[in-house]
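Q: I have two molecules that I believe assemble together. Could you output C-alpha cells for the complex as a whole instead of separate predictions?
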Amino acid sequence: MKIGKVLAVIAVLLSFGRGQLAAQGRSGGGRFTLSGTVVDGSNQPIAGLQVTLQARGREATIDPATSDAQGRFAFTGLPAGEYDLWTEGSGFGMVPYAETPEPFSGSQIHLAGDKSVVFRVVPRGVIEGVVRDEFADPMMRVSVTVLRPVWRDGRPTVMSWGQKFTDDRGRYRIGNLAPGTYTVCTGGSQNAAAPLTGPVDYAARVDNRYYARTCSRAFPLSPGQRAQIDLSPAAGTAATVRGRVRNLPPQTGFSASLLPQDEGLRATGSFNAFVDATQGTFTARGVQPGHYLVRVQSYGGTQPLTAEVPVDVGGGDIDGLEVELGAEATVTVAFYGVADGVKGLFAELHGVGTSGMTRGGVAQPKPGEFQFQGITPGRYRLALQTPAESCVQSVKLGESEMRGVVFGVGAGAALHFDVTVSQNCGTIGVRAVREGEAAPHSRVVLLIGGTPSDPAELREVTTDDEGKYLFSGLTPGRYLLWGWALEGKGATIGPSSLAAVEQQATMVEVTAGDPVKVDVPLLAAEGSGQ
Amino acid sequence: MMRLALAVVLSCLIASAADRELTGRVVDANTGEPIARAHLTIRFFSAGQPAPELTLLSDADGSFKITNVPDGQCQISCDKAGYLSASQMMAAMPPAIHPDDKRTATMVMKLTAQAAVEGTVVDDRDMPAENVSIQLVRQEVLNGRRQLQMNQGGATDETGSFRIFGLPAGRYYISVSARLGETRRTKQLAYPPLYYSKATDIAAAQAIDLKAGDEAEIKIRLPEPVPAYQVSGVVAGAVPNVGVMLVPQETSTGFRRSVGDPNSDPKTNSFRISHVPSGSYLLQAEAVQPGKGALFASLPVTVGSANIDGIRLEMVDATLDGTLRIDDNTSGQKAAGSVSVQSDGYNNMVQVEPDGKFHIPNLRPGRYRIVPQIFTQQACVRSIMAGGKDVRDGLTVAAGAAPDPIEISLTSHCGSVEVALAASDAALPPNLTVYLLRKVGDEMVLEKQGYQGPRTSDGAWHFMLQGVAPGDYVAYVWPNDAPIEYTSADYMKQFESYGQRVTVAEDSKATVTIEKPVLIPAKN
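A: Yes, here they are, computed for all two components at once.
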C-alpha cells in the first residue's frame, strides 16, 4: 500500500512492515523475552531512556521499559510474533529500532524465542541557515522546505520532509532529522514576487519578476550533524498562464489553479489563478517552470463541473489555453465475500497520468461499500485493501474483469465496481539475500498489479532483523519481486524504474495454501546511489 | 499649526494629469534615519478596480519614485526586517494630498523598530521542551477599557528555543502551553497552565514591558505535572457541528486559551475533554448553523480531584432580535442604519431593516453595550429596553437562555453641546477629539465623541456635538488614539481638572470651555 506522506508518529508506526501477521502463536505457546541495549551513535550505552514495544496487530499495550545505567532493557512474557520497537526522547523526537537512511523505514523484530538486540539510537541532525536576497539582506517569513529522496510508485522522487518560515533574521532551523540525504529549497511559490528597484515607470513596468524555486545540492546528513545551508533564491522571470473555459454555463463561477504534476511538490508549488467568471477566463501569474495540471472546478451552477488539463511551463507566457468542463463522476466500490463489520477493508482511487490525485474512498452506510465523489473525468486505477488472510479474487465492472487495469472515467459517469474477496489466498515468504547471506533491514518490493513498465500496484516493505518478510493475502497468480539494500554496501534509494531492472526480478508463482518460500537477491546499485 | 498626520497606511488622491509622480522616503520613526531597501507594496485603484500590486525597494537614501502613475487612489504598505510592518500599527487619519498644480505627490513612511522576545523552555526534569506553545498577550486599551489581546506567538524547537518578533511596544504577559509526553499522559497527568514566569493565572503573571527595538531574553521552566481529569457529557438535541471547549473562567474575550484535549463523537453528540488540571473553567459549546445564527452553550465547571461526567449542554439560539424606533412610532432605520454591539475585544455591527427590525447573531454570554449608529444629527437614544429594564448602559446576555428581544427608542428631541478648547501656545497633537462621558455607578459610559472643527479668531478650537441625549455629562478632550481608560471612574479621577461638567437639555444647546486636553506621555 502507499506510504503515507505525513511526517507523524503514526506514519512511522504504520510503516513498520506493512502487511499481514505471521503465525501468531494463537494456541498460547511460549512466552519469550526481548532484551537489549540502547546505545548512541558512538556505541556508548544510554541510561534512563524509555523504550516502547508494541506487538503488531495486537491491541494490548506493553508497559514501556527504561534502560538502566548500562543501557539495558528487557520485556518479558511476550508471545511469539512481530514487534515494533521505538524510543522517543527529549531533543531527538521518535526513533524506530533499526532505522535506515530510507525515510519511514524502521523494521520489525521477529520473536520466536528469547532474543537480544542492540538498539542504536542514531543521533538526530539539524539543517539550519539563512536566506538572503540578491542584496544580501535577510529574507523574512520565507518558506524553506527540506526534501528527501524517496522511491515511490516505481521511481525515485522527492518528498517534503519539513517546512519552516524564516524569522526576522532570515534564519530557519529544522531539527530532529534522521541521518540521510537531504536537499533544501526555497522560493518558487505563488507570493514570491521579487521587488523592483530604482525609479519605476508604472506605465512601462513588467510584473513577472519572481524568486525562482532554488534548491541546494542533495547532501548527506550524518548522525548528529548540524548542517549550515544558506540559500539565496535567484530572481528570475516567471510565466503568466492565461486560459479560457470553453463551456462555462451561465450564472456559474469557477476556480482555477495550477498544480505540479509531481504530487510531492504540491504543498509549495501550486498557483491559484485570478478568475473572471463573466468572461470565463483565468490568469495565473508568477508561475515557475515545471509540469503542471490546470484544475478547474465550477461552483454555484446546477451541477459541479470539473476539468484537468496538463500544461508545461517553460519560462515564456502561455496564452490561449482552452479548457472544457465535464460533469463530475462517481465511482462506487462494493466488496463481497466479507462479513459485516470486519476491519481491514479499504479502497483508494489513484489518478493515472494527468489526473494525479489519490483519493481514499468514503465508507458508505452500506457496509463494505466505498464511494468516490466529485471525480474529474480521466484515467484511474483502484488500489484495494482486504482483511488479513483474504485477497481480491476479482474486480468486475459490469461483466469486464478490471483487476489491476487502468480504466477511463467519463464526464458524469457513475461507475460501480464489484470486488469479490476470497479466502483462497496465497502467501510469499521472502528472504532477502546478499551474497548468499540473509539481508536484514532491506527494501523488498512486490509488484501486485500492472507491469514493470507501468506499475499499477506495489507493496514496498522493509525486511525484519532476519532479512525476512511475509506477504499474505495474495490472489493466486504470478508475481515479481525486487530487493535492494538501504544502507551499507550497495545501498540505493531504488532503481530509476522497474522496467530498468526487469531482468533482475525474482518471479514467484503463488497458489492458495502453503506459503511459497523464495530468496530475493539484492540489486546491485545502478550507479544512482543515495 | 496642525502638523501633517502620521500616515502609516496611506491613502493618496492624485488628480488626473499626465506625468504624475509619486515619490517618498522611508525613515526610522525614532531616529529619522533613512531606511534603505525597505519593501514597499503599492496598489493603485483606477476607476474602482484594483491593479496588481507593485513591489519596490527604497534606495540607499530611503527614497523611492514611481512615474506615470494612474489617476485614482493608491495604498502603500511598507516592510523591513527589524521593523514593525506598516500595516501593523494603528493608522492615524490619512491626509488627502491635493497636488493642485503640482504633479508630484510626496510622502514620508515612518517605520517603528520592532521588539522581540527570545528564550528557552525546559521541562520539569530540566530537559529541553519541544513544541511548547508560547503566546504573547498584550495589554491594550480598547473602547476605554484595559484589555488583554493575543499578539504574536510561536513554538519551541527541539532545543526548547523560540523567537517571537515583530512586536509593537507595550506591556506583555506570556502564556505557556505544553503537552506532556505520551507516557506521562497515560498516567492522567498534565502540565497546569503557566504564565511567565511561574504563575498559574494571568492575574499573578509577571509583565514584560517592551519598547521599540528591545530584545528580551527569558528562560522558562515548566512546572511539575499535576493530576488531570476528564470532563464529559452530551450536547442535548440533534445539533450538528458542535465544537466544545474548556476555557479558564477568568479569561477575557480578547484572549481565550483552551484547556485539555477535546474529543467529540458526532454520532452521539457526546464530548470528552481529557487532561484537565484542577481549576475553575467555563465549558463552551458553539454550533454554526449555515444560513442561520449560531447556537451557544456556556456552563461553569469546577474540576476538583475527580472526573466530571454526565454533563448535559443545552444549546441556545444566540440571536438577539430588536426593533429600532424613533419618537415611538416610526421605524428608526433612517436615523440609525446599523446597530453596534460591543464588549471586551468584540464589536459587531448589524444592519437595521427598513421596518426598524434588526438581528444580532452569534451572541455569546457576556455583558454588552448596544450602540445604535446614528448618522443624523437630529436623533439620540432615549432608552433601550429589554425585559422591562433600560439596558442602555449594559446588557447582560446570560448563558442557558435565548436573550430577550430589545427595543431601542430614539427621540428627535435632543440637545447639542459646543465645546471650545482654549487657545494655548503649546503644540497640539493631531486628532484631538472631544469625549462626552456619563457616570454610571463605578463606570463611565461614552455617550458621544466628536472630531475637531474650525478654529476661531481667538485661537480656540471648537467641537460641535449634535444629537446628544438630555442628561448630565463631563466633557474632555484628548487625541483619538490615546490609551485613556475612560470606562473606569477611578482612573478618570486623575484627570478631574481636565473635565468640564455640562448639562444637556432637550432641544437646547449647551456651551462649555475646556482649558487643556488630556495628554498622557507616549509609551514609545
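A: One point stands out. The first strand of chain A starts at residue 32 and ends at 39.
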